[in-house]
Amino acid sequence: MKKYLFILASILAGACKPDSNLPAYYFSQAQQDSLVTNMIAYVAENAANATDSTRFKPEFRSYYAKQLPKYQLVHLEKNANGTYYYLLIRPVGNLLAYRRGVVGSFTLDSASLMPKNFKEVINTPHLTEEVALERGSFLFRELAKKGNIKEYLVMRDYVEWPDATLTYNEKTNRWVFHQ
């Protein structure tokens, strides 16, 4: 009888194991909100009077915090080297019916929850939220598993950027036109 109870307890413990690719596995809700606010400063347009070099200053944080309800950190996974992979769903300009998935990576200053070495690996096309979640989740899983998703860059239904005209500049953390 004890053997069966042990087996049942083991099965239940495995079934209740938290999902390690969810932000809640790593951070409380308040920490997630702070992290996403910091991420918004990377992926959103600059706050009024901010430039690419000043957008992280404290005086602009309230602008990015107000954008928080429009963004959703869907997946987050940390590898053994301390790199986090993420899927962030974000708005598309003023097009309320569409969202864009952003899949990328960063390391983290754990004291401030400020991403370092932040990179957007891909942006999906303008999609409904459901499709952005589905396609972005696939690309996130592949990036977290392999560390890159180069073979999927040709899938134009999944990846809008990078493309023949735009690449991600890791120094400015912006998508830029090819020279």
Q: Could you characterize the architecture of this molecule?
A:
By secondary structure, the chain is of the alpha+beta class. About 30% of the residues lie in helices and about 25% in strands. It has helices at about 1-15, 25, 30-45, 60-65, 130-145; strands spanning about 70-80, 85-90, 95-110, 115-125, 165-170, 175. It has a four-stranded antiparallel beta sheet with strand order 1-2-3-4. Strands 5-6 form a two-stranded antiparallel ribbon. A hairpin with a 5-residue loop joins β1 and β2. The longest helix has 18 residues, at about 130-145. It is globular and about 40 Å long. Residues about 5-15 have low confidence and may be disordered.
Itemize the secondary structure elements and their pairings.
Blueprint: H1 2-15, H2 23-26, H3 29-43, H4 61-66, E1 72-78, E2 84-92, E3 95-109, E4 114-123, H5 129-146, E5 166-169, E6 174-177
Antiparallel strand pairs: 1-2, 2-3, 3-4, 5-6
Structural class: alpha+beta
Distance from N terminus to C terminus (CA atoms, Å) equals 72 Å
Please compute the radius of gyration using only Cα atoms.
18 Å
User: Overall mean pLDDT score?
Assistant: 91
How many β strands by DSSP? 6
How would you sum up the major sheet? 4 strands, antiparallel
Instruction: List low-pLDDT spans.
Output: 4-16
Question: Per the principal axes of the C-alpha atoms, what is the gross shape?
Answer: globular
Order of helices and strands: HHHHEEEEHEE
Please estimate the helix content: 25-40%
Q: How many helices in DSSP terms? A: 5
Task: Please list the strands of the largest sheet in the order they lie side by side.
Answer: 1-2-3-4
